[in-house]
């Protein structure tokens, strides 16, 4: 690939080449496997609710807050996608934590 072979002076171009080399095997997966999209629109739509919450709450005010929101939204969206009520499931997990001293694993997807 000519882009990778070129010795770039521009710092941004060097960063791009480094990423292209690092992710070379994953970049064109969609060409080799049916059903793999060429874009990440689905992933972007999945994280949109977390972005809206972050913006509506005037963003996170610390790195700790940022990390906490990322973890909580990940758990929330995972539970929702698996067909669970995130609030009820989280409350049940906290009760188990208080009772047993450790959090239970995320529940499996509900299949219909």
Tell me what you see in this structure:
The protein is mainly alpha-helical and 112 residues long. The chain folds into two domains: 2-32, no CATH class; 41-100, no CATH class. 66% of the residues lie in helices and 0% in strands. The chain has helices spanning 2-5, 11-22, 24-27, 29-32, 41-56, 63-81, 86-100. It is elongated, with a radius of gyration of 20 Å. The N and C termini lie far apart (47 Å). The model has no long low-confidence stretch (mean pLDDT 89).
Quick recap of the structure?
With 112 residues, the chain is mainly alpha-helical.
Total helices: the number is 7
Rg (CA only): 20 Å
Main sheet properties: none
SSE string, helix = H, strand = E?
HHHHHHH
Overall tally of domains: 2
Shape: elongated
Mean pLDDT: 89
Give the N-terminus to C-terminus distance in angstroms. Answer: 47 Å
> Helical proportion?
55-70%
Low-confidence stretches: none
Structural class: mainly alpha
Estimated share of beta-strand residues: under 5%
Beta strand count: 0
């Amino acid at each position: 690939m000519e882009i990778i072979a070129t010795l770039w002076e521009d710092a941004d171009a060097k960063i791009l080449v480094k990423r292209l080399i690092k992710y070379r095997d994953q970049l064109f997966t969609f060409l080799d496997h049916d059903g793999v999209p060429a874009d990440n629109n689905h992933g972007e739509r999945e994280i949109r609710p977390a972005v809206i919450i972050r913006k509506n709450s005037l963003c996170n005010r610390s790195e700790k807050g940022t990390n906490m929101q990322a973890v909580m939204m990940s758990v929330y969206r995972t539970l929702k996608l698996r067909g669970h009520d995130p609030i009820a499931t989280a409350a049940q997990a906290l009760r188990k934590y208080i009772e047993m001293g450790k959090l239970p694993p995320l529940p499996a997807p509900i299949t219909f």
